[in-house]
Amino acid sequence: MTGSDYPLLNAFWTIFLFFLFVFWLFILFRIIFDIFRSHDLGGWGKALWFIFILFLPFLGVVVYLIARGGKMHERDVQMAQAQDQAFRSYVKEATGSSADELAKLADLKAKGVITDAEFEQAKAKLLS
Known about the structure:
- By secondary structure, the chain is mainly alpha-helical.
- It has one domain (about 5-125).
- It contains four helices and no strands.
- The protein has helices spanning about 5-35, 45-55, 55-110, 115-125.
- Helix 1 (about 5-35) crosses helix 3.
- The longest helix has about 55 residues, at about 55-110.
- The chain is elongated.
- The protein starts with 6 loop residues before the first helix and ends with a helix.
């Protein structure tokens, strides 16, 4: 019995090898991105890790995961928190300013400082 006697098994084996190859590329590029976004490594450290992974990829990836793998998660969490904070501040800035201005205009209208026409004109200008 050879492998060619079972074409379905060959197809599964090919799919499995392709999956392993894609998984390997995912790990490799994830580590390369982690090297360059790491703030605790200097330029020479980043260059040496990159050269090590470039010339000895399997050994380099294993050594990197052992030496610095635990901090990869910490850097992911810090980056996600920073992006979330930046997004939240942008949303507050974008929505808060026009809402505050509308509240001020409504308050001025309620006090009788501006007329209904002036309120509608300022509101249209603010919302455009």
